[in-house]
Amino acid sequence: MYVVVFLSSVILLLYFILRHKLRYWERRGVPCIRQNFLSSELDWLIKDKSRFQYFKDIYDELAPHKYGGYSVMPLKIMIRDPEYIKYVLTKEYDSFSSREKLFFTKTDPLTHFIFNLEGKEWKDTRAKLTPGFSSGKLKHMFELISECASEMDQTINITAEKTIDVTKFLRLYVMNVIFTCTYGLKVNKMENGCEIFLKMAGLIRGGSNFSKKLANFFFILPSAIRHYVTSSAYGTYSRDFFKKIVLDCIRHREENHILRNDFLQIFMTLMNADDETKWTIDKTLAHGILYIMAGFSTTTSAISFLLYEMAKHPHMQEKLLQEIDQAFQESDGNLDYDTVQKPVYLNKIISETMRKYCIIGSFSRRCTTTCALPDGFVIEKGTAVVVSTSGLHHDPQYYPNPLKFDPERFNEENKNARHPYVYMPFGAGPRYCIGERFSILMIKAATMTVLKKFSVSILPENDFEFIFMPNKLTTEVEKINLQFKPRENMKKNLLII
Ligand code: HEM
C-alpha cells in the first residue's frame, strides 16, 4: 500500500515538474507553439519534413509576433523581426557568440571544428582560417575551380537534345572542386575515385537511413546530454578513410617540398607555426571534413536549382546566355577570375535562387550571458535563438508572391528598399559563412561553363514546385531532370558520343 502511494506521489510530482517545464514560454508571457515532451524539433524527424519547411512552418505559426518560443527542452526561441535579428547577430553579439553545435561530442576532436567553437577559441580559429578565403587566395584558387569546370564540361558532351539529371554531374564537380582546393586531389582522376568519394561524403553522417536519423536525433538532443555522448557522428570507415588521405597528402608534400595554393597548405603552415594555440593534425582533419560537409550538398543544390529555374524561364535564360557569351568574348573564351566577375544579371539570378531555395533553412545563436531584447524581454543564458531563413525568404511582406522566381527582386532599387536582415542565405554577423565567396565562385564557374555550350529546358512532367527531401540538414531534392540542347554556336565544336 505504502509503495503504491509512494510511486503515485513520485509520478504525480514528475508530472507537475514536467508540466511546469513545458509551460516555460507561457509562464514568461511569450507567444509560443504548443510543446512536445522532449523537443518540438522531434517533429522534424517524426513528420519527415525538410528543415526548409519545418522552420518556415514555425515562422508562419508565430506570425505576427516579433519572436516566440517553440521548444523548452532545450529552450529555443525564434526571432522573426529583422531589427531584433540584427540586434542579436551584431549589436549584442557578445551575448550571442555561440551557436547550436553540429554532431559535437566532447570526446571526439574531429567535431571540434570552427562551426562548433566558442569564445576565444572561435575567434582565434576564425582569424587563422579567414586569410584562406581572401580575394587574393580565391583568385589563385579560381584556377583550380576553372580546371574542374572544364573537366565537368567534357563529361557532358552531347550532340542532340537529351535529358540529364543535373545533380549527378554537379555533385561530382563540386566534390572535385572541394577536394582539389582542400587537399590537392582530383577525385575524378582516381580509379573508382568519384564513386568512392561521393559515397564517403554521404557516409560522414552515417550510411543507412537509420544511422542518418540517429545522427539527426543527436543533433536535436539538449546540449547537456549531447556533449557527453561518447560515440562519434562519423562512421569509423569514413573517418579512417579521410584520415589516411590527409596524412598521405601531408607526407607527400613534405617529402617532395610541394607548395600549393590550397586549404591544406594553409593548415600545414598553421601546424608549423610557432604559436601558443597550436594547430594540431586533428584540427586539420576536422576542418577538412567541415569544408566538405559545409560546401558539398549546399553548393550542389544551389547550382542545380539555378539551372532548373533557367530551364523554367527561357526569357531569363536568353538574357543570361547573351551576358555569358559577351563575358567569354571579352576574355578570348577563357574562364578566369575576371570573366566570372562580368555577368551582372548572373548575380541577381544567384541571389534569387538563394532566396527562393534557401539552402540552409535556419541558423542559430546560443545565449552565453543573460541578455535583454530591445523591448526588455530577458533571454536566459543557454537559450537558443533561432532565425528562420526559409520563413523570412518566403514572407510575402518582404517578397510578394514568394514562390515566383524574379531576379529583379535583387536590382539595386529593390535591394535598398528592403531590410538587409530579411535576406541571409549565408547567415549574418561575425559568424556568417566563411565559404560564401568560395561557393559563389563555384556556382558561377559551373553555370557559365554549362550555359556556354548548352541551353536548358524542362519537360512538362518535370515542371513543378519541389517538395524538399526530409532528414537532411540542407534543402535538397533527389534529382533534377533537364533537357540539354547544344547551342547553335557550339554544335560544331562538340564531340559525338
Ligand atoms: C551555397 C553554399 C553555402 C551556403 C548556403 C552556406 C550557408 C551557411 C550558413 C547559413 C552558415 C551559418 C551562418 C551563421 O550562423 O550566421 C554557414 C556557416 C559556415 N559555413 Fe557555409 N554555406 C555554404 C558554403 C560553404 C562552403 C563552400 C564552406 C567552406 C569551404 C563553408 C563553410 C562554413 C563555415 C566554416 C561556417 C561556420 C562559420 C563560423 O562559425 O565562423 N560554407 N554557412
From TrEMBL:
It is a peripheral membrane protein. The chain crosses the membrane at residues 288-308. Pfam families: p450. Signal peptide: none annotated. It comes from Maconellicoccus hirsutus. Keywords: Endoplasmic reticulum, Heme, Iron, Membrane, Metal-binding, Microsome, Monooxygenase, Oxidoreductase, Transmembrane, Transmembrane helix. Gene3D superfamilies: Cytochrome P450 (1.10.630.10). InterPro entries: Cyt_P450 (IPR001128), Cyt_P450_CS (IPR017972), Cyt_P450_E_grp-I (IPR002401), Cyt_P450_sf (IPR036396), Insect_CytP450_Detox (IPR050476). One of its GO terms (molecular function) is iron ion binding. Heme binds at C433. The keyword Oxidoreductase applies. CDD domains: CYP6-like. It is found in: Endoplasmic reticulum membrane; Microsome membrane. This is Cytochrome P450 3635A3 short isoform. Belongs to the cytochrome P450 family. PANTHER family: CYP9F3-RELATED, CYTOCHROME P450. The keyword Iron applies. Its cofactor is heme. Its main location: endoplasmic reticulum. It comes from the Eukaryota. One of its GO terms (cellular component) is endoplasmic reticulum membrane.
